[in-house]
Design a protein that fits this description.
Blueprint (H helix, E strand, L loop, with lengths): L1 H17 L12 E11 L15 E12 L5 E10 L5 H9 L6 E7 L3 E13 L6 E16 L2 E9 L5 E9 L2 E17 L4 E23 L4 E24 L11
Antiparallel strand pairs: 1-2, 1-11, 2-3, 3-5, 4-7, 5-6, 6-9, 7-8, 8-10, 9-10, 10-11
């Protein structure tokens, strides 16, 4: 992944500066923006407990900014964000307790992931002329911190030759936090409402891999067991957000603003 990120950064940087044209006026200005939205896990349902991400969906918020490159349609984008996907306990618990397909998941509780990220990269505005509407493409990389929620669930284990009775086990998994490096390609559609204000709709993907070091304790009325566990998660998550941005300076195209 490191080589992929480095190659992408070199390509975008070279292409950005090659697009600068001193014969053209500025078509982008610095701006700040605030976004709220909704995120969704894109990972397939895992079939084992290797490299899973157990997120579902949840709210997302971020603040972002753009440093415009002079006489170019490119800018340097940065974003500070937070996402809170839910934890899919109904998929996690049976897979981690029902090895022989005879145990029964009895229910439980789990919170949500807390994901914090700081991204930076390049932003391209299209079309390359001043219009009310615009399309933006951006590619960012940066650090990401993810917190796994504490998890509790029960398991019914059949007993006896005829499986007419069962034991109830309660499993508790501690919360854990992991930090890593993530990459985020994104695309946005916008409409300029006035000289300084615009509304945007963004779709940003987040790809990351991280490890959680947790402690799992399993208890029944006759026994208890505790052990440490290191699990690796690979996340493919998409955020959809609505954005209000404020531009510093204004473009003077031959269009009329309301």
């Amino acid at each position: 992944m490191k080589y992929l990120l480095l190659s992408a950064a070199i390509f975008f940087s070279g292409f950005a500066f090659s697009q600068a044209d001193s014969s053209k006026p500025n078509y982008m200005y610095p701006f700040v923006a605030a976004s709220v939205g909704y995120g969704q896990n894109l990972s397939n349902k895992p079939v084992n407990n290797v490299r899973p991400f157990w997120g579902t969906n949840g709210p997302t918020v971020n603040i972002s900014a753009l440093i415009a490159l002079k006489e170019s349609y490119w800018g340097i984008a940065c974003m500070l964000g937070y996402s809170a996907p839910g934890f899919d306990l109904s998929a996690y618990a049976p897979l981690n307790s029902d090895t022989n397909k005879t145990n029964t998941f009895g229910g439980g509780s789990a919170g949500h992931y807390n994901i914090y990220y700081l991204m930076g990269g390049l932003n391209l505005k299209l079309p390359q002329r001043t219009t009310r509407g615009a399309l933006e493409v951006r590619f960012m990389v940066g650090p990401l911190i993810c917190t796994l929620p504490a998890i509790t669930y029960t398991t019914h284990i059949p007993q006896g030759p005829a499986y007419t009775s069962y034991k109830v086990y309660t499993t508790n998994v501690t919360s854990a936090t992991s930090s890593t490096f993530a990459m985020s390609p994104g695309i946005g559609l916008g409409h300029k409402m006035s000289r300084h204000l615009a509304v945007m709709a963004y779709c940003d993907l987040i790809f990351a891999s991280f490890k959680f070091n947790t402690v799992t304790s399993t208890n029944s009325y006759v026994s208890s067991e505790t052990h440490s566990n290191i699990s690796e998660s690979v996340m493919s998550y998409v955020n959809f957000s609505a954005t209000l941005s404020y531009s510093f300076g204004y473009i003077r195209p031959n269009i009329m603003y309301n």
